[in-house]
Design brief:
CATH class of the largest domain: Alpha Beta
Strand content: 25-35%
Number of strands: 13
CATH topology of the largest domain: Rossmann fold
Distance between the termini: 32 Å
Number of helices: 11
Amino acid sequence: MADAIEVRHLVKRYGNLAAVDDVSFTVRAGTVFSFLGPNGAGKTTTVEILEGLRRATSGEVRALGLDPWTEAAALHRRVGVIPQDFRFFEKITPREAIEYYGSLFGHRPHPDELLARVQLEDKAHSRFDTLSGGQKQKLGLALALTNDPEICFLDEPTTGLDPTARRAIWDVIRSLKSEGRSVFLTTHYLEEAELLADRVAIIHHGRIIAEGTPPEIIAAHGRPERLRFAAAPALADYLRPRLGLAVSAADGRVEVELGAPSDALRVLSAVAASGVPWASFATAQDTLEDVFVRLVGQMDDGTLKAEGTT
């Protein structure tokens, strides 16, 4: 499987500020790649360089084998883009918008099929200014698919959507992957990236601080699996000297980190012997969001360096 996107030592400077500072990654064709980071991390700058909207200061960037800056016209015919906070002509209808986009790319799209794909067929003849925020985002996604793209750049495509609409967009993203298209997804919903992405890169202060599959990132940077009890802090006081495991108590919960699966039986036996009342228990594992928050915080306080640095 070929690489749809290749980025090597990308740098973008504005005077003395390095908005993107020596970033490298690849996106395999036919996969979903999620680019994550807090506001101001360098996400938008990187994406706009990939789309041919900004010129890199240095480094090598290829999308579908093309240089996005010098071969932008050829690239734009092969990619679809939905920008953050998508806007369009106020009086145009979704059906007219798709036909108009098709004319720009020399395509003859099927508006009804595209609108059905994003569950917007009932608004085919409604004016853009009457659509809800979620419906506007759906139209943006339909327009991104108008030219039958090989890569879809989706910048926070589910922002502002209700849970049902978000899941409809997730289904579209999964279908794009099943068709062999590549999806470059930026999102502030970390569970969205964990569910949809084959690989994830986390960027902060212009540097990539973690990259891999969601399970790889969680395994490398997350805390061990834990047993969580709804119980008073007295249970933690009882367990600490008896288990030799990390035990914490907060917000009416007691958590015990497990060093090995067999530790679970020891913990349950100790809890039963404690005589301390408890209401329920469950296993707990870090999510991608937990890891993201921890890594960003560690980089801000200087305890974490970007990948590839010493």
